[in-house]
Amino acid sequence: MTSNKIIEYYNHALIDYKRIWRLDRNLAIHYGYYDSENKTHDKAVVNMNRVLSEIAKITPKDRVLDAGCGIGGSSIWIAKNIGARVTGLNIHKGQLEIARQLAIKNRVENLTEFTEGDFTKTNLQDNSFDVVLGLESVCYAKNKKDFIREARRILKNNGRLVVADGFLQKENLDVKEKEEMKKWLNGWAVPNLSTLNDFKKYLKQLKFTNVKFLDIKKNVMPSSTRMYKASIICYPIGKILEFLGIRNKTQTANIVSAFYQHKTLKKGLWTYGIFYAEKSLS
Fold first, then answer.
1. Does residue 62 lie within any of the structural domains?
2. pTM exceeding the 0.90 threshold for the entire prediction
3. Number of folded domains that form the chain
4. Which of 78, 93, 139, 207 is deepest in the core (most CB within 10 A)?
5. CB atoms within 10 A of CB 274
6. Residue 54's domain spans which residues?
7. 64 found inside a domain
8. Biggest alpha carbon distance in the chain?
9. Tens-level pLDDT at each residue, the chain (282 residues)
């Protein structure tokens, strides 16, 4: 997958995020964190921002990098609810412009900035951030270790890295399982998923300490199910609209991905979890 493929995917998928994910209301392009107090879709996707901020121990004094910030929903939530300064980084110019306008609308433009760039090779200063946050964005790095290395460079000593994403749970997939994973990942323009063991290994190789992993598969399963149900309804309609030239293959593949992300998650081929790690002094 190239940057152009990722940009193309989000250009064409935006309409589906608005319809199915209610993007205009919740500013979220990620799975929701469902718990006893957040049982609806809109509450759960916003709740994910709270959960990650608590795990990252973000305070008003912190400077945060939202790596792969989308339309800036998490950046805006952190600035608005915690008061931290947040830099949103993204390769998609259109999403960045939306993020800037949303920051103004939410009156946090003084606490946020949105800049174009690749989170595996930024132009940001060494030791300049207290927290690096990757919410369902690190999967887009072809080499996950490149992201972790860059995060370490820009983090201050004792800075925190938090990554919420999908990780391969079964390392030796059979032919059918590989095909199902391919149908999911290709449709969302994701080059690959790291295994849990590899991601943990990269963190330790790059001298991150206090490495922890929290599996939250059960908390995101309702989001996965929501996409799955929508895919069953939308696929035949999408194919007809594609045939008529109203929708395109990228949009149809997005629907297919929504089906297979759920099927493969239920089969235990991958899981959804949160990595936490700290930059050591050494």
1. yes
2. yes
3. 1
4. 78
5. 21
6. 3-170+191-219+270-279
7. yes
8. 60
9. 579 999 999 999 999 999 999 999 999 999 999 999 999 999 999 999 999 999 999 999 999 999 999 999 999 999 999 999 999 999 999 999 999 999 999 999 999 999 999 999 999 999 999 999 999 999 999 999 999 999 999 999 999 999 999 999 998 999 999 999 999 999 999 999 999 999 999 999 999 999 999 999 999 999 999 999 999 999 999 999 999 999 999 999 999 999 999 999 999 999 999 999 999 876
The alpha helices in the chain, defined as continuous H runs, are: 3-20, 23-26, 41-56, 73-81, 93-105, 144-154, 175-187, 196-205, 217-243, 249-266
Give the separation between CA 27 and CA 101, rounded to whole angstroms. 12
Report the alpha-carbon distance of residue 102 to residue 24 in Å, rounded.
Answer: 10
133 CB neighbour count, 10 Å cutoff: 30
* Residue 152 belongs to domain with CATH number: 3.40.50.150
